């Protein structure tokens, strides 16, 4: 259906001023929707030509009025054409506001994502980790790339989002970006978060992706048996860097700490009581919750082994995540385990294989 777009200028004879001039009004009509506004101009009623929407006067004042009315005509046409081209969502009120310069353009998806990322950046070290901030940046870049390639736009208003957007984005991540199911799910979660933010702010009143169900991951969290842990602990490893990663893995097994927690572990976080028992008191980077973990003999030995190697008060000088992941896989192959070994499995083995065997109540690890 073709839109009916009209606009005109007229004078309000009912509000003639003391100087005898009448205010010039504007009216924009789009598909029966009307928006009226004051142009801020005025003219003598006997000089006004309602058919052409101009003054017939020749004074400097009247010539200036006509010149400014022509500029308003041009502005209305320009904003209408721009909205048709870029937005697809147009109302008479939006055109009026754009012409008068009082409108806030609809808040856009990437703009909101950028704002959310900035908030995460400011909270790094408080209740978010650097890894979380980097994942937001990655999510923003991929969404930006999708919008550019799919819609040939730099951004997209929330009120233009349709159900097909999230389906197309899901497919794009899988096919064009070759992402694994877990990575796709994370990007879809980011997108949903932006929708929730927009709804909370009143930018939109409905969820355009309501009812969408993304492919669910089957939980594959694995842990090691006591026999497998022993294999790793007793394996003969000649290369010092791989031996270090083995020690960090074992440290994770016996403390339940993640890679990030081990990397950030500081000397002052290792506490002792009056009876000589030692504990690790640490705020988890992922959950921002305080954890108290008893320090068993094995991790104590590892701490002693690397005493003095940490920098800036840290207990260990941890290798980067990529290296740790690569060496962990090598350790798994060396030990001939029947499962793919990942560093994340170390902390999952803590509750199942260590807490139970060492008589540590899981509820005390909080």
Automatic annotation (TrEMBL):
Keyword set, alphabetical order: DNA recombination, DNA-binding
Segments forming domain Tyr recombinase: 219-366
SUPFAM superfamilies according to UniProt: DNA breaking-rejoining enzymes (SSF56349)
Gene Ontology terms describing biological process: DNA integration; DNA recombination
GO terms assigned for molecular function: DNA binding
Family classification: Belongs to the 'phage' integrase family.
Protein name: Tyrosine recombinase XerC
Organism of derivation: termite gut metagenome
Origin organism lineage: unclassified sequences, metagenomes, organismal metagenomes
